[in-house]
Amino acid sequence: MALYLVQHGKSLPKDIDPEQGISDTGRAEVERIAAVAANYAVQIAGIAHSGKKRALQTAAIFAAAFDLEDKVVERSGLKPLDDVVRLSAELRSQDGLMLVGHLPFMEKLTSYLVTGNADKTVFKFQNGGIVCLEEDVEKNSWFIKWTLMPHIE
Questions:
Q1: In whole angstroms, what is the distance from residue 96 CA to residue 124 CA?
Q2: Which of 3, 33, 60, 101 is such that its CA lies 20 to 30 A from the CA of 78?
Q3: Distance from C-alpha of 33 to C-alpha of 17, rounded to nearest angstrom
Q4: What is the pLDDT of residues 27-75, one digit of tens each?
Q5: Beta bridge partners of 98
Q6: Distance between CA atoms of residues 79 and 70, nearest Å
Q7: Would you tell me how many other CB atoms lie within 10 Å of the CB of residue 11?
């Protein structure tokens, strides 16, 4: 199993939706990525999201694609400016957890896990995309195993 990091789907502007839920485009992109990942038989055991509307909606789309509706939870520590070091100590790739959150948190968490430095960018996320990380327990390190993004840019 692995750790799956997802930036929420593209959201609506605050003047249209003060809670910034995902847009129709964001929903379509997340549905497409979730379907591709499910078709590849990606092994997800549970999904945690930040509690923000757009993250919850994104998590729900992945949960439906993987038949995990009963394994979606809100988790503290996934907000945009939360401490990646604190959360990273709790993560294990064998748990098969998907975390759905926001920038800059997701990029900083990926950087911290891979390099030990949250400020050294190792990957640029796209809304609705997945970064799969695996832990090398013997070496006490993480690496990016694969990514699945809505756009090739």
A1: 22
A2: 33
A3: 24
A4: 999 999 999 999 999 999 999 999 999 999 999 999 999 999 999 999 9
A5: 4, 47
A6: 22
A7: 22
Q: CA-CA distances (angstroms) from residue 99 to 13, 116, 123?
A: 23, 19, 16
pTM above 0.85, yes or no: yes
Q: Is cis: bond before 80, omega within 30 of 0?
A: no
For 8-103+122-131, which CATH superfamily applies? Phosphoglycerate mutase-like (3.40.50.1240)
